[in-house]
Specification:
It comes from Nibrella viscosa. Pfam families: Acetyltransf_6. The chain is built from eleven helices and 13 strands. By secondary structure, the chain is α+β, with helices and mostly antiparallel strands. The protein folds into two domains: about 5-115 and about 295-310, Aminopeptidase, CATH 3.40.630; about 125-285, Aminopeptidase. Strands 1, 2, 3, 4, 5, 6, 7, 8, 9, 10, 11, 12 and 13 form a 13-stranded mixed sheet that branches. Strand 3 and strand 4 (about 70) form a beta hairpin.
């Protein structure tokens, strides 16, 4: 297998995106236009085929750390990996050869179990939408069904929208302080850029619930291919107490039920949130994070000093 490492400027966007779209691993995070929005910088491993086509690709997102560019999974990009047919191991060997430090890389494909890899298994939660809505709702747990009835009785006004700023403000005011290290301004800018790119392609559904004209909750869904991703959400205390996000999720499930789609809650590693998603009948789908270091003793010492200095 002849694997080439191409800088972003030399990647053929059409060939890359066609490879991702036609692969069994198809997911929106792998497209060039998506990576351009979320990654500080990225490059890619490519196996070329006939007439300029790509047989398999593996995006490698990078971030500047400790004075060097290292492999680092970006925000709003749950997992990547190899897109296409063939063995996965040669791509990991190529990554180690070209990049001596991997801060974190997430993949939906089981990575090689090597002694020099630090592996951790995670779960996103997904819901099969091919059954009809009545059957999907039957699998909500008792609390979710009760809270949905309460939300339906609360007379929320639900509207589709195109302005993401209320959602960002609501998150900043009601959720950001609960995240360790808070949320940097660049993260909001990154999401704005991503939203513009996604909405220009007709992939987004942005919805708000209002009471007395005031927005109390909002959700951003993205559908690409056969996967719908619950990409971002926020709610005020009023929205949370009124189960507004339960209503918004349920309404989308009603609309998409009976279609060959997978709804991905994009679960974080937080039991309370995972429990909320499981209450809709969602099941865990594994993915893995990989870390490794091939730095020498001097480089590791410099890295530790940099960490100490910044802390």
């Amino acid at each position: 297998m002849n694997i080439q490492l191409l800088p972003r400027s030399e990647i053929n966007d059409a060939a890359w995106n066609r490879c991702v779209e036609q692969s069994p691993q198809r997911v929106m995070y792998g497209y060039t236009w998506y990576l351009d929005c979320v990654a500080w910088r990225w490059t890619g491993f490519v196996v070329s085929g006939h007439a300029g086509a790509y047989q398999a690709v593996m995006p490698v997102p990078l971030r500047r750390k400790f004075g060097r560019w290292v492999v680092h999974q970006p925000l709003f990009c749950q997992f990547l990996g190899v897109f296409g047919q063939g063995a996965v191991m040669p791509f990991w060997e190529a990554m180690q050869q070209h990049f001596r430090y991997c801060s974190i890389y997430a993949t939906v494909q089981p990575p090689p179990d090597r002694s020099d890899f630090q592996l951790q298994q995670h779960y996103t939660h997904v819901l099969d939408l091919s059954p009809d809505y009545a059957l999907i709702r039957q699998h909500y747990n008792r609390d979710r069904q009760l809270n949905l009835r309460r939300a339906e009785a609360a007379n929320w006004t639900v509207t589709d929208d195109y302005d993401i700023e209320p959602l960002l403000r609501m998150f900043r005011q009601n959720h950001a302080d609960t995240i360790p290290g808070t949320v940097a301004d660049w993260a909001y800018d990154r999401l704005r850029t991503l939203y513009r790119s996604l909405s220009s392609r007709g992939l987004t559904t942005l919805r708000y619930t209002r009471r007395a004209g005031v927005i109390e909750a909002g959700v951003l869904f993205v559908q690409e291919g056969h996967r719908i991703v619950y990409l971002f959400n926020a709610a005020t205390a009023t929205g949370r107490h009124g189960n507004a996000r339960t209503l918004l999720i349920d309404q989308l499930l009603q609309e998409k039920a009976g279609q060959p789609l997978l709804f991905d809650f994009e679960s974080p590693d937080k039991p309370s949130i995972a429990g909320f998603y499981q209450s809709f009948g969602a099941v865990g789908q594994p993915y893995w994070t990989v870390r490794y270091s091939r730095l020498n003793r001097f480089e590791r010492s410099a890295q530790q000093f940099t960490r100490w200095w910044r802390s």
